[in-house]
Amino acid sequence: MDMEQERRRLTADDWAAAALTAIGAGGLAAVAIEPLAARLGTTKGSFYGHFSNREALVEAALSLWEKQFTEAYIATMATEPDPMARLRMLFTRIIGNAGQDALAVNVLASADHRLVAPVVSRVEQRRIDYSFALFEEIGFPPTVAAQRAMLGYTAYVGHSQLATRLPGVLPLKDADQLTRYIDSVLNLLLHDAPGPTAPV
To answer: Which sequence spans correspond to the domains of the chain?
Structure first.
């Protein structure tokens, strides 16, 4: 395949995915057109066939991050009818993957950037709202559900930071330790849960 064929084959999504990988590896500053073109085996001409400038690429990458790591996560749990099971699925996935979550840490590190700020704000609110709905469905009154949702989200953010930056701090060496850790987090979040879904 010659260079011209490669340029035609690459899509805007390919560029966005490459930019997202770059953010995970080196933060927002790592999104640079020429190195990405080299990584994709193409030239800057391919880039300009899809995007007018670097900012447009960053916006596309952040949109992809939002879809893959928030909306897709939520969608995978939609078929589970039990809110307690959905909460466990959520925490198992986000805590289990936290050590590979440099992308989220790097996005949050740029949360004051004018392109990043609105996306981070929207993503965080969506995640907190989803957790709030789970706690309400479990049976907590709205005020308590809001508190538990915020507590759960801040626990996730802190865990993600530690798992990425200081992995040796967390005592999660194997699957059994991970399961016990998730159990302890859920037991705290579900303390005094009403009804038959209360943890034992």
So the answer is: 1-61, 77-200
Classify residue 195 as left (phi > 0), alpha (psi -120 to 50) or beta: left
Q: Please list, in sequence order, all residues whose beta carbon lies within 8 angstroms of the beta carbon of residue 8, skipping any fewer than 6 positions away.
A: none
pTM of the model: 0.86
At the top level of CATH, which class does the domain 1-61 belong to? mainly alpha
Contacts of 97 (CB under 8 A, 6+ apart): none
pLDDT one-digit tens code per residue, 17-49? 999 999 999 999 999 999 999 999 999 999 999
C-beta neighbour count of 102 within 10 angstroms: 17
Task: Please state at what angle helix 117-138 crosses helix 83-96, rounded to 10 degrees.
Answer: 140
CB within 8 Å of 74: residues ≥ 6 apart: 126, 130
Give dist(CA 121, CA 100) in Å, integer.
22
End-to-end alpha-carbon separation of the chain, Å?
A: 61
